[in-house]
Amino acid sequence: MTGWFIAFGLAAGGFIALLLIGRIPRSAREISAAALLLGLAGYAWQGNPGLAGAPRVSRESAGDKFDEKLAEQRRGLAERYGPAGQWLMMSDGLGRQGKTREAANILLSGLRATPDDPNLWLGLGNALVAHADGVVSPGADFAYRRALTLDPEGPAPRYFYGLALARNGQLQAARDLWAPLAASAPAGSKVKAELEANIARIDAMLASGAPAGP
Question: Hey, which end of the chain has fewer CB within 10 Å, N or C?
Answer without folding.
Answer: N
